Amino acid sequence: MTAYESFRAAPRDPATAFRVADTSREASLARLEKLAHLLDSAFLIPGTNRRVGIDAVIGLVPIVGDFAGMLMSSYILYEARRLGVPRWLLARMALNVAFDGMVGAVPLAGDLFDAAFKANRRNVRLLRRHLERHGGLRPSEIEGTAIRIDG
């Protein structure tokens, strides 16, 4: 029996045969948070306390870099739409990406703005907040005031 024939004859569960990744809300949000970190704050600028990501680095390449950054940022919008966020939130997230891309296209000043604005982290924060309030996602932070009780 050849390798191909043994592969064809192997029993498989059709429900998991083509599953690429976990599609739960928590898993999707975790992936988006990692992507936002990579795009906006993956690298520490030596000698400073400022972080930049791949988006700011490729944004140094005129026109093409800013377009590529907007394209990568739009994946977060795609996932947000898939997770069922309302149109008004998608529009707000899209405005963050468009604003980041348009101002980032301005030479030098736009690159500095791009390193500071961090549209992807803003969008993932908006998405997380929406899913915590309306999507059944457990909060990542506890809201309120802590009071120490000495007994």
From TrEMBL:
Organism listed in the record: Methylobacterium soli
Entry keyword Transmembrane: yes
Matching InterPro entries: DUF4112
Keywords: Membrane, Transmembrane, Transmembrane helix
Record-given protein name: DUF4112 domain-containing protein
Pfam families in alphabetical order: DUF4112 (PF13430)
Transmembrane segments: 56-78
Domain of life, source organism: Bacteria
